[in-house]
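Dear Dr. H.,

I hope your travels went smoothly. While you were away I took the liberty of generating a structure for the chain from your last submission, since the lab meeting agenda had it listed for discussion. I wanted you to have the full record in hand beforehand rather than looking at slides cold. The sequence, exactly as received, is reproduced here:
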Amino acid sequence: MTDINLALHDVAASSHRGVAFLLAFGVCWLLCGVAASWLTPRRAALVVMCQGMVGLPLAFGLQRWLGFPPADPSNPLTPLAIYMATSQLVALPAVFFIYRYMPTHVPAVFASVLGAHFLPYVWLQQSRVYLALSITVSVGSWVVMALFRERGYRAVPMFVGVALLIAAAAL
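The corresponding predicted structure, in token form, is as follows:
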């Protein structure tokens, strides 16, 4: 595969522009918000920090169940897509720092990292939905924190989950 447009099309087609990931993680974030309603801020923060351990396998399973075609193994963008998908890991030390000193802010910090992570997907998945999602999740999570104050750690995961599900529907 040598044409960049063909490679981009293959990436988008093999995941239907990432819809399975948005669905899986949208559900996980919503469940984090539900769980946060009866958990302490520290425990709710841990649930948010660990939700990817459920979301990622769920997303891969959902992608297979929905029957999306497998990506072409010769696609030169595959390594880049993997790097982009794992870029959030770079910010984990900041999340751990916030967890130690302000666990109620972990969902908003994690959501900001998630939102920033979506920005390169505007190009990779060839969809402006990711631009809207990036801005909405990054900025919106802090607006929710400001509105809900000490209960923001419960509301932010719900907000992020709904945003991800709306983006999945839009795609």
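Two observations you may find useful: The two ends are 25 Å apart (CA to CA). DSSP finds ten helices and no strands in the chain.

With kind regards,
E. W.
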